[in-house]
Write a structure and sequence with these properties.
It comes from Leeuwenhoekiella nanhaiensis. With 308 residues, the chain is α+β, with helices and mostly antiparallel strands. It has one domain (1-308). The chain has twelve helices and ten strands. It has helices at 3-17, 34-43, 57-61, 102-121, 137-143, 190-194, 212-218, 240-243, 263-267, 270-274, 278-284, 294-306, and strands at residues 22-27, 72-79, 92-93, 126-129, 148-149, 155-156, 164-171, 200-202, 205-206, 234-236. Strands 1-2-7-4 form a four-stranded antiparallel β-sheet, sandwiched between helices. It has a two-stranded parallel ribbon with strand order 3-10. The radius of gyration is 20 Å and the shape is globular. The chain starts with a helix and ends with a helix.
Amino acid sequence: MNTKASNTAFIKAEAKRLGFMSCGVSKAEFLETEAPRLEDWLSKNRNGEMAYMENHFDKRLDPTLLVPGAKSVVSLLFNYFPKEQQREDSFKISKYAYGTDYHFVIKDKLKELLFSINEKIGKVEGRAFVDSAPVLDKAWAARSGLGWIGKNSNLLTKQVGSYYFIAELIIDLNLDYDTPVTDHCGSCTACIDACPTDAIVDPYVVDGSKCISYFTIELKNEIPAYAQDKMEDWMFGCDICQDVCPWNRFSKPHNEPLFQPRPEIISNSKNDWKELTQEVFSEIFKKSPVKRTKYSGLMRNISFLSEE
């Protein structure tokens, strides 16, 4: 086995040891096909109030601007599908937010992976990314053969589904590159048909400014009146387009202790959430992704849902 092949095999084996579902590698280069798509998406204001999506346009498309001398993008998937879910009569929280904030959990694992690479292979410069920098993670994961981008714009994987986080290491090390897989959405339109706000405006194109996740997390102003009666009890995020995806019938529960749901998330009823205080919010959602919407934002969402 040559050095490039053995280094690639080591990184993939180490990723598996750290609990990652899968690992793929692609060449760090300009994302030529994604550039016009991103430009078109932004020009149509499909980012809504997410102004940060307009920043660092070049960096989003060229990993060598994030890591000078970058040769490889190592893409990794980490399962978050929960064993138990919320009770039926509750306001809903997206499954990714049941436990500890994934940024903390996965960043630690990426740092350990980079440390192992340096220890085993030698000095390798690189950076770890978990949905917190201008990186088109789904595009890189698709290039790395970890799945295809579905009609709901999520990365989908045969026999696995889409309930996983995507992360990257961008490093200045030449590795063996994987090849993309084919699209397996076929004629299915389950996600398009199920979206109550018609956020999937075309197959493979999501208008972020119409998405329930956007309304409940990113939007700082009032939720628009036209969304009344269309929120389907989601108070933080939304999983509808994933829940209906046929590939997610293959989802298996994760085994990451830090992603175990907080008891209140599973047991609270709608009335419990309506009576939530700032103090209890801070306690339940300590180190949780839900902190992003703040107490005031979550209560705004609950109030809006209660008027439906």
